[in-house]
Amino acid sequence: MAETLGFCEEMRPESCGLILFGATGDLAARKILPALFGLCEKNLIPKNFYMLLSGRTPLERSALESRLWTAMNNAGFTPAPETFGAFLGRLEYLQADYDSADFYRVLSARLDELDAKYGINKKRLFYLATPPAAFEPIVNMLKAGGLLADPLDCACWSRIIIEKPYGSSLETASSLDAGLKKAAAENQIYRIDHFTGKETVQNVLALRSANHVLDGTLNCRFVDHVEITVFEELGLEGRAGFFEKMGLARDMMSHILQLAAITAMDLPETFRDTDFKAQKKRFFESLRPYTRPEVAASVVRGQYAGYLAEPGVAPASAVETFMAFRFEVDNDRWLGVPFYVRAGKKAGKKQTSIDVVYKKPERGIFRHIDIGYPNVLSICIQPEEKVTVSLVSKHPGPKLCFAERGMSLDYRPDAREAPRYPTDYERLLIEAMSGDQTLFLSSLEMRLMWEFLAPLLEAWTEAPDENPLRVYAAGAPGPAQAEELLKKEGRSWV
Ligand SMILES: NC(=O)c1ccc[n+]([C@@H]2O[C@H](COP(=O)([O-])OP(=O)(O)OC[C@H]3O[C@@H](n4cnc5c(N)ncnc54)[C@H](OP(=O)(O)O)[C@@H]3O)[C@@H](O)[C@H]2O)c1
Predict the structure, then answer these.
(1) Mean pLDDT over the full length of the chain
(2) Which of 246, 355, 394, 493 is the most exposed place for a label (fewest CB within 10 A)?
């Protein structure tokens, strides 16, 4: 097993109760409940801990247990009976009517009983995995029902995890934010982007911070351009209702900008929430805003052939399933360096990666030889978790010939170790239970993200002729215009 250096202790979060709203939903079944089970199995839950699941569907205990068993199996767990039994022993289900004050009275009384049973002093993490339209009403009802503790009262706490999407435009996100802040303080609101919980994403910052050889070269002196790819092999997977309202840009922009930030932001002094967020904010503030002509020149939107025939999709839907765009970062570090992004569904493969392409040598013996881009730092986030650097080295033999060689850092060299480490949702749950907001998105960050996206969405709505929707074959890496975006600047995707 690889040896670790310092900071290796996994902190056990504070004793608390977790209340999951939307427990009968798809996300709960696929991600949240398996993450809760994973934390129990890995013994990463707080010392005193209970889970109260709620959904609108009435569920008998046996039906609940059978749902949970199926969810665990689908997530790849085949729990031993005693492990599953211990998990079930800590949870119960409460049918919800989220609009009714009565429900919150019943909830409050039950939470008091559970607190007493588990020896917890009103420390409660509410996880809102309901449709976004229910976020604000539920938080208001929690407040009205006396379920949100005063954040200044240190003896007890209430935190709220809000699922994505956080609004669908600058206006709706601002309105949601203002609404939530009437009932809860910023330090009680934990806005999720599960990408930030991924090990490999966090490793980018670790690699940059600990290795001068990397971070010292991440700037406009050495870097020619940066590419970010977020490809999905799958299409809608039954989520047409959600996707038709959102489209890819709204759905993915937060992930994309988080990847850009961890690659290109100035490093914080510490990984404490405030330092980290301050640097991320500076990075987001330096994203150059698009003008209307720049959207037409720098952004490609696409839709895969066959999308219109998917169940639940409007016959003439102009919703994008793909986008490619070029942006710049207006600061000294990245002056003149283009960032190219491509993201899409049915793009032929599942791939999330960041490629930093270094400049060609300008001086020395290579000046007149075309060796392409000799160095690319590739950070693969999924499906593989590895970092590679391509180098040009001398080919063995008498002549001075060159060959491309790679150096590779496999982030998980020992697959047997994998089950020991928290997954992205597990990590985020640990952080929220520990009261650490570093990996969650701030209100300001959300606003800056929507401000960046707003001119682009406006241009698509108001000037569709200048920003046509390009059709691409299912399984292809987007339309030809995505290639053109780089080609016209003498480049191509890695
Ligand atoms: N699914 C994903 O892959 C995914 C990924 C990222 C983010 N999210 C976000 O996670 C949240 C849940 O998504 P989901 O896919 O799990 O949705 P879903 O399958 O439709 O489940 C929604 C859950 O909320 C409850 N619910 C439905 N309508 C409600 C309403 N008007 N008020 C209160 N509760 C209501 C449902 O209860 P009953 O079924 O018992 O009626 C169910 O428990 C959404 O905000 C979504 O954007 C989902």
Answers:
(1) 93
(2) 394
Domain with 233 in it = 196-417+472-487
Q: In what order do the strands lie in the sheet with 402-410?
A: 402-410, 386-394, 376-382, 351-358, 223-231, 338-344, 322-328, 299-304, 469-472
Domain final position from 142, 163, 184: 163
Q: Which amino acid is at 424?
A: D
Residue 273 Cα to ligand 1 midpoint, Å, equals: 29
Residues 139 and 160: their CA atoms lie apart, in Å, by 8
Rounded to whole angstroms, the Cα distance separating 126 from 435 reads: 13
d(C-alpha 18, C-alpha 111), whole Å: 10
Element (H or E) spanning 392, and its range? strand 386-394
Catalytic residue check, 255 = yes
Q: What is the pLDDT of residues 294-322, one digit of tens each?
A: 999 999 999 999 999 999 999 999 999 99
120 with 206, same domain?
no
> Is the distance from the beta carbon of residue 374 to the nearest atom of ligand 1 less than 6 Å?
no
Q: How many domains does the structure of the chain reveal?
A: 2
Residue 204 and residue 263 in contact, taking contact as beta carbons nearer than 8 Å:
yes
DSSP state letter for 130: S
Q: Which of 212, 255, 368, 395 is catalytic?
A: 255
Helix (H) or strand (E) holding 470: strand 469-472
Is the whole model's pTM more than 0.70, yes or no?
yes
Q: Whose CA is nearest to atom 7 of ligand 1?
A: 164
Residues 202 and 158 placed together within one structural domain of the fold: no
Are 275 and 337 members of one domain? yes
Domain CATH number, residue 32: 3.40.50.720
Three-state secondary structure call for residue 262: helix
Check if 228 has its Cβ closer than 6 Å to any atom of ligand 1: no
Q: What is the mean pLDDT of residues 444-463?
A: 97
- 128 C-alpha to ligand 1 centroid (Å): 9
- Per-residue three-class SS string for 56-125: CCCCCHHHHHHHHHHHHHHCCCCCCHHHHHHHHHCEEEEECCCCCHHHHHHHHHHHHHHHHHHCCCCEEE
In the prediction, which pLDDT does 1 show? 45
Index of the ligand 1 atom closest to the CA of residue 138: 33
Q: Which of 26, 161, 234, 244 to mutate to test the pocket of ligand 1 (most atoms within 8 A of CB)?
A: 26
pLDDT number for residue 413: 67
pLDDT in tens, 38-79: 999 999 999 999 999 999 999 999 999 999 999 999 999 999
User: How confident is residue 418, by pLDDT bands cut at 50, 70 and 90?
Assistant: low
